[in-house]
C-alpha cells in the first residue's frame, strides 16, 4: 500500500526550504520583525482591544500574514515544478501524483506552523496578552485552517505562470493584499470600506475573532456572516484560478 505522504521527499523538501534564504526571510523573519516593529515596540501595545491587548491583535495579524505567505509561496513552487515537467519524472518512480501533492502541502503547512509559532513565541515573550488561554489556541487553529485557502491561491498562481517567478508573484501579492486588507495598519473611512472586499480582510478578521469578536481598532465592528462570506467567495475565486491554471498548463503541452 502506497503511503499518502513520502517521508524521504518531505525531509528533502523541508531541508531545501530551510536552506532557502528567500523562504526564511519572507515566512519566518519578516512576520516576527513586523510584529516587533508595529506591536511589541509601540506604547499602544498594552492598550486593550476586545478580550486582548493591541500587541496580541498585531501578533495574530502577523501570524496570519506569515501563514498566507508560506502557503502561497511554497504551493506556487510545487505547481511550477509540475508545469516544468517534474510530473513526467515522477511517473518513473513509485511516488504517485497524490502523494507528491500531499507531501508538498504538508511541507507548506509545516512552514506555516513554524512561522506562526515564531510570531506567537515573540508575542508571548514581549507582552501580548489575552483574557483566556484558549483564545491563543483558537486564533492559531483558525490561522492554520483558513490559511489553506492561500495554498489554493499559490497553486493557481504557480500553474498560471509556470515558472519560479510564480512564487515571487505570490509572495509580493500577499503583501499587497495585507496592506489593503487591514492586516498591517488599521484602516478607516473609504479605505476600510474598500478593504472589506479584498482577499485578506475576512481571513484576518476571523483569526482575530477569538480576541475581538469582530471589534475594529478604528471603531465599529464586523458581522460574522460578512467576514465568513469574504473568505468563502475568495476561496471559490482561488479554486477557479487553479482550474484556469490547469487548463492553461494543459494547453501549453
Automatic annotation (TrEMBL):
Q: What is the recorded membrane topology of this protein?
A: Multi-pass membrane protein
Q: Can you say where in the cell this protein is located?
A: Membrane
Domain (ABC-2 type transporter transmembrane): give its ranges.
10-188
The GO terms describing molecular function are: ABC-type transporter activity
Annotated TM spans = 21-42, 54-80, 101-122, 134-155, 167-187, 224-246
Q: Which domain of life is it from?
A: Bacteria
Show the InterPro entries listed in the entry: ABC2_TM
Q: Name one cellular component (GO) term.
A: membrane
Primary location recorded for the protein, binned into one broad class: membrane
Keyword annotations for this protein, in alphabetical order, are: Membrane, Transmembrane, Transmembrane helix
Keyword Transmembrane helix in record? yes
Provide the protein name.
Answer: ABC transporter permease
Amino acid at each position: 500500500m502506497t503511503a499518502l505522504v513520502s517521508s524521504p521527499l518531505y525531509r528533502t523538501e523541508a531541508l531545501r526550504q530551510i536552506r532557502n534564504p528567500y523562504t526564511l526571510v519572507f515566512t519566518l523573519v519578516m512576520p516576527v520583525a513586523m510584529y516587533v516593529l508595529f506591536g511589541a515596540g509601540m506604547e499602544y501595545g498594552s492598550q486593550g482591544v476586545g478580550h486582548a491587548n493591541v500587541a496580541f491583535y498585531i501578533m495574530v495579524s502577523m501570524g496570519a500574514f506569515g501563514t498566507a505567505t508560506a502557503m502561497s509561496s511554497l504551493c506556487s513552487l510545487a505547481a511550477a515544478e509540475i508545469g516544468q515537467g517534474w510530473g513526467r519524472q515522477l511517473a518513473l518512480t513509485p511516488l504517485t501524483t497524490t502523494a507528491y501533492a500531499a507531501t508538498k502541502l504538508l511541507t507548506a503547512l509545516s512552514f506555516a506552523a513554524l512561522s506562526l509559532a515564531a510570531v506567537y513565541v515573540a508575542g508571548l515573550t514581549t507582552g501580548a496578552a489575552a483574557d483566556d488561554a484558549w483564545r491563543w489556541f483558537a486564533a492559531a487553529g483558525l490561522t492554520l485552517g483558513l490559511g489553506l485557502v492561500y495554498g489554493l491561491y499559490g497553486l493557481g498562481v504557480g500553474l498560471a505562470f509556470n515558472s519560479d517567478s510564480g512564487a515571487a508573484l505570490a509572495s509580493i501579492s500577499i503583501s499587497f493584499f495585507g496592506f489593503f486588507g487591514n492586516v498591517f495598519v488599521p484602516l478607516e473611512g473609504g479605505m476600510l470600506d474598500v478593504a472589506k472586499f479584498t482577499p485578506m480582510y475576512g481571513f484576518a478578521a476571523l483569526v482575530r475573532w477569538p480576541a475581538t469578536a469582530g471589534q475594529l481598532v478604528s471603531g465599529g465592528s464586523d458581522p460574522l456572516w460578512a467576514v465568513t462570506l469574504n473568505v468563502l467567495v475568495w476561496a471559490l475565486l482561488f479554486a477557479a484560478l487553479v482550474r484556469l491554471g490547469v487548463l492553461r498548463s494543459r494547453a501549453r503541452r
